[in-house]
Amino acid sequence: EAVPGISNSASSGAGDISEILINTSNAPVDVTYTYVTTSGACSGNSQSVLARVNPGGCWMGVIDRDWFKNGNWCGLPSCTGDAYIPTYPLGGRFPQIGADGAICKDLILSPGASLEFVTTYGLSICGNWINNGTFTPEYGTATFIGTTDQTIGGSVAANVFYNLTINNSGVQGE
User: Fold this and answer.
1) Neighbouring-strand partners of residue 97
2) Cα separations in angstroms, 8 against 11, 23, 33, 112
3) Residue in 46, 49, 68, 50 with CA at minimum distance from that of residue 59
4) 19, 46, 124, 136: which has the fewest C-beta neighbours closer than 10 Å?
5) Residue that wins the pLDDT comparison between 53 and 85
6) Which residue from 10, 2, 52 is spatially nearest to 31, judged by alpha carbons?
7) Angstrom distance (rounded) from CA 174 to CA 159
8) pLDDT in tens, 128-151
9) Which long-range contacts (CB under 8 A, 24 or more apart) does 4-7 make?
């Protein structure tokens, strides 16, 4: 059965099933597998397993709160890769940006999630800002550096910036 946001390929052999799942959405997707024995003394028995497939650029926070550590992400964000901060990261920690150079395509903060700029550091956004969580800007700067239209969305109350810079090469003034 097809699961929205998941592309997959599968193969099976005698007692062996292998499947590669790639999350093509901007949020974790839960997939339930039910394995059924079809022959032998245990025929008809079944076992279900729930698997969560995170998108690339999903914050896990398993090491610490440092935005720049690869082990905190399943795919470090870039200008072509989103930064998705889930409500419940695996490590239970939310990211802090405490150095220069943080960048992402779309920033997606889920409800209950948070992002903090430490002192004057900030984030360059190549895509869109979607904040339904908590953003703490300290004295940092959110810089929009896209080449096409960009949006600031999510909860209006959560989108308060200390410094906001628009440096979008595709936007033309009239």
Assistant:
1) 117
2) 10, 9, 13, 30
3) 68
4) 46
5) 85
6) 52
7) 26
8) 999 999 999 999 999 999 999 999
9) 4/29, 5/29, 6/31, 6/53
